[in-house]
Amino acid sequence: MSAVSLSFPLGALSLAALLVVGPAAVQAADLPELNIDLKQTTVSGISSGAFMAVQMGVAHSAAVKGVAATAGGPYFCALQDALGGAGVSRAIRRCMQGDPDYGVMPITADALAQMQAAARAWSVRGLIDPVQGLAAQSVWLFHGYNDGIVKKPANDALRDWYDGFTPASQVFYKDDLNAGHAQISAACADATIGSCNSCAQTGGKFINACADKPAAGGLYDAAGAALQLFYGPLQRTVTAQLGSRLDPFEQKPFTKDRQGELVMPIRLAMGDTGYVYVPQACKAGESCRLHIAFHGCMQDAGSIGTQFATGAGFNEWADKNRIVVLYPQARSTVGAPMAPVNPMGCWDWWGYNDFLYDSSAGRYAQKGGAQIAAVWRMAEKLAARALPGNAVPTAVSAPALQVVDRSASQVALVWTPVQDATAYRMARAAEGAAESEVVTLPASRTSFVDGSLSPDSAYRYRVSALFGSGEPASSGVVEVRTATPAPACDPYFSLAKNTAVTKSKCPTTQTCP
Predict the structure, then answer these.
(1) Exposed, middle or buried: residue 487 (CB in 10 Å: 0-12, 13-18, 19+)?
(2) Taking 60 as the threshold, does the pLDDT of residue 422 lie above it?
(3) 348 and 263, same structural domain?
């Protein structure tokens, strides 16, 4: 989906062959064994990686506490079109909706209900973790209004899918930046990484820099917003001062066929080499958390080397906060025998690994799916030296409240946990109005997404830690202004031409401001 994505029905194989180049030679080592609490795992992804992150978060909801998806669609979006990978054109029409050559198949209420019902049925059968685990997750969603590859209705359907499982106070959705189809990064412009796209562009490495709105100056930091929604207030390291490095590892020990036998990674459309960022504290044996970051199509190492892993913005937030970042790699399979059809190095969200195997659709999205199982084996290897009581944040005497993201209608807030608190009470005051209580949350939650707010409006928030007896401990007041709504924008992208087009299929450079 990044770039040409699933364009192979239109003959993009030759284009893919030109675009896919081998990464620089590296000395891949074994994946390290660390002291990681798997129940503190979070996942993220862009485009096909967004679909994959959602699949991982649903399949392993008992362990995954946070899911971030940029430009994705709902779980099991391909529906029965995933059967044998034969309905890819219909999957594009339903789950991407941005190529005029394919047309649009809307995600109807009935289709969405089928996607939700599949998760519930698979949960009962043990093919995924119990869906009740989704009620504990935090979810961060992003869609740029210049994205003509995965259109906004598909992203909206992902939000609506979560409505069936996850409280609205735990789901944040930002859709008011003029971004194209890309990972939005505050690190990609660093001189040590190289240039990145302007905000509205779609193409290249699919890593864009966007001004943070409504805040004046600075870049919007998608990685920081998502990770802090999941883990609470964090400290960012400047890219040039990172204390560790990106390490390659062999993916072959984790790629297996349906009989449990090891196979070459290309048999699953996965690369030989993956990457991991391990902070020095984690290397020293301290308790750490795990974040899994899935690249999009044409962002694999065979296409852009390590630029996604170094430029997506996660390492800067991981470095001082005991977060290990795993960057598993898919790969292009152009001309490869005995491999699934995946010319653009996409993650499997439409069943290409199930072709000729399944009598019913959906295995790729379950715990037994080839790629999901391989990546989870990587996570388990990283957590092989886990000790009891891992990765518990240091409690404080009073909560420190922070705004980590805002849209035209929502504000995402997080705070530090307080020792012996039994609950937290959030209070809000609109501009010119008195403060009033919004919600009381259990002690296990230290984040809150406030919704149904007015655009371009000022609000003040304060959180108080409650105890069984005694006075509450309150944070200071934080102020925030919501964003302005996105303008009417109707972008399109031709997968065959690999360029933005108008609805009538004419190439265009026009973007919405």
Answers:
(1) exposed
(2) yes
(3) yes
